[in-house]
Amino acid sequence: MHYLQNLLSQLNLASMGEAATRMAGVFLCLTIHETSHGLAAFCLGDPTAKELHRLSLNPLRHIDWFGLAMMFFVGFGWAKPVPVDPRYFRKPKEGMAVTALAGPVSNILLAALLLLISKAIYLANPSSYAAYVIFNFLVDTSILSVGLGLFNLIPIPPLDGSKVLASFLPDSAYWKLMRYERFGMLLLIVLSLTGIGGYAIGRGISRVWLLLYDLIY
């Protein structure tokens, strides 16, 4: 009985540790994603994100707690959107597209960086348990980062892909598409709950991550 209690205690600690490292990975990916939106907008002339202190690597400035809970329990979630004012852009549609694209691109670059660090650990071949935990964290978070980046490229409002797609539309169609962002969120939740399109998204994430892995390893 004492052995069983110890075993259950160890399992609980392991699951808590896994949950904590996954949470840290989610925080990292979302923070880089949202900060990159703000930096892109700032470079294009929009100071809104900077004035609201959203050019920060502090995850608490970017986390939407309900969106975070949805990510864990439903498989689809969100952070607090970085405020962007397209009136500051010389070309509003193009500026919005570049700002939107900055998030997914940053996630792909983050995944590549995490894999590079994991390779350095692999080549060093340390024998400590801490190195094992860090290595797994880096690899798992790289997969998560690729997933977040590719998912956001889906052209359904309010995802980043819709803003990239909208830059190719006439002005009247562009503003009409942006007007339906709130319905797009409901559609995404329904798709996530039903699993529609999940296989295709999963295949895309696997292929992109394996491409990065092959390039780096």
Structure description:
The chain is an all-alpha fold. 74% of the residues lie in helices and 0% in strands. The chain has helices at 2-43, 48-51, 65-73, 92-124, 129-151, 160-166, 171-179, 181-194, 198-216. Helix 1 packs across helix 5 and helix 5 packs across helix 9 (198-216). The longest helix is centred in the first third of the chain and has 42 residues, at 2-43. 28% of the residues are buried.
Blueprint (SSEs and pairs):
Elements: H1 2-43, H2 48-51, H3 65-73, H4 92-124, H5 129-151, H6 160-166, H7 171-179, H8 181-194, H9 198-216
Helix pairs in contact: 1-4, 1-5, 4-5, 4-6, 4-9, 5-9
List the defining traits of the structure above.
disordered N terminus
Report on the biggest sheet: none
> Which series of helices and strands comes N to C?
HHHHHHHHH
The mean pLDDT is 85
Strand fraction equals: under 5%
Q: Unreliable stretches, pLDDT < 50, 5 or more residues?
A: 1-14
- What's the number of extended β-strand segments? 0
| Number of separate helices | 9
The helix-and-strand class reads mainly alpha
Tell me the Rg in angstroms.
19 Å
Basic shape: globular
Share of residues in helices: over 70%
Q: CA-to-CA gap between the ends?
A: 46 Å
